[in-house]
Amino acid sequence: MDVLSILIDWSPYIIAGIAATLGLVLIALGIGVLLGLPMALGQVYGSRPVRWVIGIYVWFFRGLPILVLLFLFWFGIFPGLGLGDVPAFVVGAVVLGLRGAAYQSQIFRGAIQSISEGQMIAARSLGMSRSTAIRSVILPQAMRIALPGWSNEYPNMLTDSAVCYAIGVAELLTVTSRIVSQTYVTMPIFLAAAVIFIILNYGGLKLLHGLERRIEIPGFGSGAV
Amino acid sequence: MDQAVFIFDILLPALMQGLVITLQLIVFSAPFGLALGIGVATGRQYGGPILSRACKTFVLLIKGTPLLLLLFILYFGLPSIGITLSAFTASVIGFILCNGAYNSEYIRGALISVKDGQMIAAQALGMTRAQAIRNVIMPQALRRAIPGLSNEFIYLIKYSSLAYMITVVELSGAGKNVATKYFIYTETFMVVGIVYLVLVTITTVAVNILEKRVAVPGMSRTSAAQL
């Protein structure tokens, strides 16, 4: 059987696999922003115990391989909490998200710290509260500076999402290996999967670079600060 | 079963065997990954249009493909075209390709950061282009690339766990086997995680020492940038 007809026969599964992969990536990136940004603020503006707790979290989630984290949560922590029925997809997205938050918090932290202190002083002297200054003055600049670095989280997350194969999430790599084991056609199917991953990778990056240009403020490059 | 008995009599001996395999994977991959990185970066920066384009495409393809899929291609895919590799060899080749591609990005960045004047000066002193790259540009560039390269080395330690997915029973795999046999998951994978944290922390300390050791007095990263 030739490769093209295999791909056509299996196309519903392949599309479902692509959807699952993108779902993992988008949910995980979302969790990463929602947790990573407060963590970055906590690390810059928080009290000593807050900084300490966040530091431990970041050290833990960045120090462990994604495979070990997936095993730990899928076999250990989720069933241990009585959540053994949670689907592998949810566990995969949560683990990728928790780990992504650790990485993203450091991107956001670097961006926040790159805004000169004078901005906070100026905002306070205009009568803004600390939190208003952070929200209205620091963050709008910091997020723009963070975006190029943050964009790199997308390809990292996409390639890491494939490791969810290990806990049986029906994402693109799992679908690929299922097709291979059913059809005994190996190399062309693997290469087709690689092509799809590469398209998703660089296609997504292109969208993100477009976004960077859109929200750019003329005259305010990261180099200009 | 007592938890201490489980951890010290059963888990740790099994993990030690796995750790040996993990260290072997790293020791075989890292030097070739560095060499590949240097080669690809040099080819991309100083090679002709064809070599430069080929190096760029290589990096693009490797960075775009999940490492796990690359391992599947090397271990499950290659036999179908008559090349059969052991799982260990396939893992090492996969890690070298991946590590080399990412290393090359840092080394290329460092090569670009060395000012053009250095190449002109070296050639004015009678060096050939290749000599100038080897003796003048590369020694500076590699020093500047150390932080990035050490990051990639840490990634190599962590991603070596993916070898388990193609049947190499390294550290994570040894942990998984024990966890499945005794139905003790959380503790087992926490201990496995701590071993990785120890490896990563040792590496970070070692890299800081290395960076100080190879530093050329008076040529800090900032002062070098002004040259």
Walk me through what this model shows.
The complex is a heterodimer of chains A (225) and B (227). Chain A has 225 residues and is mainly alpha-helical. Chain A has a domain at 22-170: MetI-like fold. Chain A is built from ten helices and no strands. In chain A, helix 4 packs across helix 5 (88-114). The model of chain A has no long low-confidence stretch (mean pLDDT 93). Chain B has 227 residues and is an all-alpha fold. Chain B has one domain (3-226): MetI-like fold (Orthogonal Bundle). In chain B, 81% of the residues lie in helices and 0% in strands. Chain B has helices at 3-46, 49-64, 67-77, 87-113, 116-124, 129-159, 171-182, 186-214, 221-226. In chain B, helix 5 (116-124) crosses helix 6. The longest helix of chain B has 44 residues, at 3-46. Chain B starts with a helix and ends with a helix. Classes of the chains: A mainly alpha (225), B mainly alpha (227). At the A-B interface, helix 3, helix 4, helix 8, helix 9 and helix 10 of A face helix 2, helix 3, helix 7 and helix 8 of B.
Q: Could you say what the CATH architecture of the domain at 22-170 in chain A is?
A: Orthogonal Bundle
Distance between the termini of chain A: 60 Å
Q: What share of the residues of chain B lie within helices?
A: over 70%
Strand content of chain A: under 5%
How many helices of chain A? The count is 10
Low-confidence stretches of chain B: 223-227
What would you say the CATH architecture of chain B is?
Answer: Orthogonal Bundle
Structural class of chain A: mainly alpha
CATH superfamily of chain B: MetI-like
CATH class of the domain at 22-170 in chain A: Mainly Alpha
SSE order of chain B: HHHHHHHHH
- Name the beta content range of chain B: under 5%
Q: Helical region count of chain B?
A: 9
